[in-house]
Amino acid sequence: MAHNLPGRVRLRLSHPLKDPYNTIRNIEGHAGVKHIIYTAMTQNILVTFDRRSITLEEIIIRVALAFSAEHELAPTTIKGSQPQTSLSELSFLSGMTLIAGHLLRLLSSESKTTHAVQLISGIGTLIAVLEHTYSDLKQTGRFHPEVLSVGYLLASFIRKNPLKGATIAWITTFARHLLEAPTKELKIEAEAIDPECDENQCEFEATIYNQQLSAAPSALLARLPKFLFGLYSDMNTKIEDRIFREIWKLSDDRDQVLEGIENNSKGIRLNIVR
């Protein structure tokens, strides 16, 4: 989902529509859908709709199923939020070397091992920050201000105190990611069914999953504030979670059957997997 306002949503497709006219006609043929504009160059669909007649979540389902039908009922994913740059193994490894460096400094501040570990932690953190900056740039197309910590880290090598510089650089760059909820996406699997064998005369059965993509160690930390403060779960709720809840509610309100895609007299049977 690229952007949305009340009564208006812009959806970005992963592939171009094969038959834009037919797909748009099928989506526009439902109550509440006012107008659809498809831009082939950017692969965006702009839908204007009446919120009193149709919900944003139903618009999303209908576009996803129409898109799936165009591609031989291939599974469709819905990503409501911008992709996030998660912590890599190198980031965690550099963090562990920083902890080891501080522990050794407390136990034996002048040993060669302590100085070696501090140097390794500084170099490791520098590489981790640069790797993270590059990944962030690829995903978002811009530099995050945290990249400025690289300058402080390089200066700490000149001052012969890489442990302090690396610690500040690591916290500045990675701390915000520790409490981010794991990346999620909604997956819709459509299956054509024989209306004659279905009591609801349905055209498709759509199974909807809310699945977690990343199983990074930071996922456990993302749940910690929920236990400490109780309110954090709502603060850190992903857009995908909110859309999934609304689709679940929509499914209950419609008795698990939505109006069909190509044939309004038929239906779409919804199967919500929690």
Quick overview of this protein structure:
This protein is of the alpha+beta class. It contains nine helices and nine strands.
What's the story with the biggest beta sheet? 5 strands, mixed
Tell me how many strands there are: 9
* Strands in their spatial order, largest beta sheet: 5-6-7-9-8
Principal-axes shape call: elongated
Amount of beta strand: 15-25%
Query: Which stretches are poorly predicted, pLDDT < 50 over at least 5 residues?
Result: 220-236
Instruction: State the helix count.
Output: 9
SSE order, one letter for each helix or strand: EEHEEHEHHHHEEHHHEE
What is the correct CATH architecture of the largest domain? 2-Layer Sandwich
Percentage of helical residues? Answer: 40-55%
Rounded mean pLDDT score: 75
Head-to-tail CA distance between termini? 21 Å
What structural class do the secondary elements suggest? alpha+beta
Broad CATH class of the largest domain: Alpha Beta
Radius of gyration (CA) equals 25 Å
Give me the CATH fold name of the largest domain.
Answer: Alpha-Beta Plaits
**Total individual domains:** 2
Write the layout of secondary structure elements.
Layout: E1 3-5, E2 8-12, H1 20-28, E3 33-39, E4 44-49, H2 56-70, E5 76-78, H3 89-107, H4 112-140, H5 149-158, H6 162-178, E6 184-192, E7 202-212, H7 218-229, H8 232-235, H9 239-253, E8 257-259, E9 267-273
Parallel strand pairs: 7-9
Antiparallel strand pairs: 1-2, 2-4, 3-4, 5-6, 6-7, 8-9
What can you see in these coordinates?
This protein has 274 residues and is of the alpha+beta class. The protein has two domains: 3-82 and 182-273, Alpha-Beta Plaits (2-Layer Sandwich); 89-178, no CATH class. Helices cover 47% and strands 20% of the residues. It has helices at 20-28, 56-70, 89-107, 112-140, 149-158, 162-178, 218-229, 232-235, 239-253, and strands at residues 3-5, 8-12, 33-39, 44-49, 76-78, 184-192, 202-212, 257-259, 267-273. The chain has a five-stranded mixed sheet, covered by helices on one side. A four-stranded antiparallel sheet has the order 1-2-4-3, with helices on one face. β3 and β4 (44-49) form a beta hairpin. α3 runs antiparallel to α4 and α3 (89-107) crosses α6 (162-178). The chain is elongated and about 80 Å long. Mean pLDDT is 75; it is low at 220-236.
